[in-house]
Structures are given as C-alpha cells and as structure tokens.
Design brief:
alpha/beta; 14 helices; Rossmann fold; 5-stranded parallel β-sheet
C-alpha cells in the first residue's frame, strides 16, 4: 500500500486547527534500557503526516496522547489509567509493549480498543478488543515451516533457543510449524547468560541439519553465530528480526550475521519494495530521520497511526467512540501498511488479537543490504 491519501480516505489538505482535535492514546516502552523510542517517533511522524498532508480526521487535527513505560511492569497500570481516564481518547495505539502489558491490559480490559503492530507482550494476543495487524511471533513462526519445506527443501531442522519464558513459547511454536511442514526437528535450550554456545548448538544437531533456527536475542544471536562459525556450519540459518539489532552487529565486529531473516513486515532496507519507498519518502517529508526510520518499530508505529486514521475517517470525527472504533477494527481485513495485503482478526481462538500469521523472508548480504527471497508466506496448510 503506497497511496496513503486513498488508504485513509482523507483529503489533500491541512487539518483545520480551529476544529477540536481527535485524541489517540499511545503506549510504548522507552526511556530506559531495552526501550524502542523509534516506535513513538514513527507514530508522531504519522500524526504529523495525517495533519499536514491528509486533511486530519475529517478536517479535525489528530492528536497523540503519549504515555511511556520505562522499566517496571506496574508502569503499564499507570498508562492504562491515564488513557482510560482521558475523555478525548477513544482508542489506543501501542508501540512495543513487551513490559507492562499485563498491568496495562488489566486496567483497560477492552473498555477502549487497542491497536498494535506486533504483539510482543505476553498478554497482548489474548487481550480483549485488541488487534495486532502484524501478529505475534508464535503465530508467525508457522511460516518458518513452509519456507524450510518449499524453498529450502529441508528435511531436518535444528532449533536453538534461550531458556527464557518468551523464547520457550516462541521455540515451541517454531518446532510446531517445522513439524507441521514434515521436518524432523531437534530443539535445545541454553541459559541466557551463556556465551560459549558450541555445546547447545552441537546438541541440537546443527552440524548435520538442513536448516538452523536460532530463537534468541542480542548476545544469544552473537553466541550462536560464533558457534556455527567455529563448527564450520554452512547450511541456511533462518532467524527472527530480534537478531537484527545493533548490539548483535557490535558483538560480531560491526555487521550482522549473513543469515536469512523471517519478518512480518516489509523491511525499509528492501529497496525493491514500493511500500518501503513510500514510507521512507513520506516520513522524511515530516522530519523522521533516516536512521530512525530504518529501525523496525518506526514503520510499525507509522502503520498503526495510519490504520487508525483510516478507521477514524470511516467512522466520522463526530461519531468516534470506543464502541464505533472497535466495530470498525473488527471488520478490518487489510491491507496493512508495510505488512500483508490481507489479514483476519479473530482467526485464532487461543489468540483473538492476532490478525496476521504471514511472514516474508530476506537474505542479509552485509553492509545493510537485504535481498528479498519471498513474498508473504503462510503457515503449512
């Protein structure tokens, strides 16, 4: 999706500042270690774009009401209370709420709709009146099976994961997806503090497997990459976007591992993709810095706000309430900006907030260059 004006149903004009603003709540983890301020930067840029280029919401200015979680779970409760109590806010957008999501959802509890790009927090996929346009890792992982079977023609897989609650859930989903595609899978976990991973990588059978799937973050990605190099493993490695972070490149001497990465969004580094070009051009017009735009959560924030602009315009500025917005979100089937052409919310009974289970795969070629390998792939049917 590249025509933002048509997408949101707006007008080529500036919002009328004399009209009352339409409030949109926003929650994100930032301001401390492990935060993603680029998600909020992407959301703010999208609000500015809506107001300067797309006529606001039926002429009314769109206004972002931001609440941040810095480092503690209970801060999510504060944000929930703040945005629930703000009468100008009928709906809430979420950046990366991997912390504070439980206390946030306990307060909001479906009273106002919540739209999130990727549902990272463990309670997000099951939260009431919550909609995740890019899905969550457990449901996207099915595509790893399809890719391994149909593209790599793999028969065996080695899964290596961190023994953290989140990565255990993700690894079991990856194993399930790989097995559903007919692969024989061996899965081995390792302690999050471990740095020498030759043992677990060997135990998972990486030396003989047709495909290696690391499910970890930061130093874990570094450890797996070093172990595979020491063992001389040359078979394809299919990783998640969590191994595309700057600390991984730093730990490996300045660049990311030359692996295949499965992602639920079109990468901004994909110069062949029209939606990437549209995002980079439009966001630059409203001041989003290029290095910020390149981080995965910036386009997610941008996409979430523009989806809300589409929903708000469909409802009409004078009829926006939690109920009318929720009703429209339930009908939303895509396309998703920087995401899949078609999504289905409520497809999974165990995770009603998950609207997407598709991923696309890229080969990292070094020095920031990604080569697209596939279009959108679904889990094994």
């Amino acid at each position: 999706m590249t025509d933002y004006l048509r997408y949101v149903g707006g007008k080529e004009a500036k919002a009328d500042k004399s009209l009352s603003p339409v409030g949109l709540g926003w929650v994100n983890v930032e301001g401390g270690p492990g935060g993603n301020p680029e998600a909020t930067a992407g959301a703010r840029a999208a609000v500015k774009y809506v107001n300067e280029k797309l006529g606001g919401i039926g002429g009314h200015p769109l206004e972002l009401k931001v609440c941040t979680v810095v480092s503690a779970e209970e801060e999510g409760q504060k944000c929930g209370q703040q945005l629930l109590g703000d009468k100008s806010v009928s709906a809430i957008g979420v950046g990366n709420l991997y912390l504070g999501d439980a206390s946030f959802n306990a307060v909001v509890a479906g009273k106002k709709p919540v739209l999130v790009g990727v549902a990272t927090g463990p309670t997000m996929p099951t939260a009431k009146n919550t909609f995740s346009t890019f899905g969550d890792l457990p449901h996207i992982f099915g595509a790893w099976g399809t890719y391994s079977r149909d593209v790599l023609k793999a028969k065996t897989a080695a899964v290596i994961h961190t023994n953290t609650p989140g990565d255990k859930i993700a690894s079991s989903a990856a194993v399930k997806g790989l097995k559903a595609a007919g692969l024989k899978v061996k899965s081995v976990g390792f302690d999050a503090q471990a740095t020498d991973l030759i043992g677990p990588v060997t135990a998972a059978g990486a030396s003989t497997a047709d495909v290696v799937v690391p499910i970890t973050i930061g130093s874990g990605c570094v450890g797996v990459a070093k172990a595979l190099k020491q063992l001389g493993v040359t078979k394809p490695v299919v990783a998640t976007p969590l191994c595309m972070s700057p600390d991984v490149a730093q730990g490996l001497g300045g660049d990311l591992p030359a692996w295949t990465y499965g992602v639920a969004q079109t990468l901004t580094a994909d110069s062949s993709a029209a939606d990437s070009k549209a995002f980079l051009t439009a966001s630059a017009q409203v001041g989003l810095k290029k290095d910020t735009a390149a981080k995965v959560f910036a386009p997610l924030g941008w996409s979430t706000v523009l989806t809300y602009a589409k929903i708000f315009n469909a409802v009409g500025p004078d009829k926006i309430t939690p109920a009318t917005v929720t009703e429209q979100l339930k009908k939303f089937t895509g396309p998703v900006i920087m995401g899949a052409a078609e999504v289905k919310c409520g497809k999974y009974k165990d995770a009603p907030a998950v609207c997407n289970d598709q991923a696309r795969f890229y080969q990292y070629q070094g020095k920031g260059q990604f080569k697209p390998l596939t279009d959108w792939i679904r889990p094994p049917q």
